[in-house]
Amino acid sequence: MALPPSLRTSITPPELELVASEQLVEIVPLVSMERTAFISGAYGPLRPPTKCKVPLWMASNLKLKKKCHIVPPVWLNTDFLQERLTEETTSPSFSEMPFRFAELAKTLLDVAPDDLQNPERIRSLLKDIREARQAKSREGLAKLDHNELLLNNLCAMEINEIRPFFVRGMDVLTKLTREPGQDAMDQT
């Protein structure tokens, strides 16, 4: 969602992708490598064709150097995404998706489209899911209630997008629902 500069107080999408790059993904190495220690932990050993789990940043780096294939997460396929899209368009609640699905999917589609089955269809389904979820978010914000807010199954990117609107909206609602004279007590 493109926001005006005055509302860009949240983390940027590239920053969210950086945070998501710590997620572990499965790879099939094409080269052997001993266990290697990094600041975030030790990974390996890599022995082809044995699968192993490494952080997304490491998998991306190895993939760009043609030293591994990335095994897509179980949810990153057309059947699963089509089911979620159907849920999103027929149910008033958000469908259950991994918390960092948007960031992981973007990275894997950018770095390893050849490791995915039908990447263009996956990209299209993700776009449709995202648009359906954004519509629900906008609808939910329009019905904002000061007493209760329930938005289950939002992902990190979606929370980040609505945070500025939500904070301002709750601030206005708080001011509107205060008892007369309560402002004077708050200042003391």
TrEMBL record:
The keyword Thylakoid does not apply. Belongs to the GINS2/PSF2 family. GO terms for cellular component: GINS complex. Pfam families: PSF2_N, Sld5. This is DNA replication complex GINS protein PSF2. PANTHER family: DNA REPLICATION COMPLEX GINS PROTEIN PSF2 (PTHR12772). Residues 75-175 form the GINS subunit domain. The keyword Lipid metabolism does not apply. Keywords: Chromosome partition, DNA replication, Nucleus. Its main location: nucleus. InterPro entries: GINS_A, GINS_bundle-like_dom_sf, GINS_Psf2, PSF2_N. It is found in: Nucleus. SUPFAM superfamilies: GINS helical bundle-like (SSF158573), PriA/YqbF domain (SSF160059). Component of the GINS complex. Transmembrane segments: none annotated. Residues 12-71 form the DNA replication complex GINS protein PSF2 N-terminal domain. One of its GO terms (biological process) is double-strand break repair via break-induced replication.
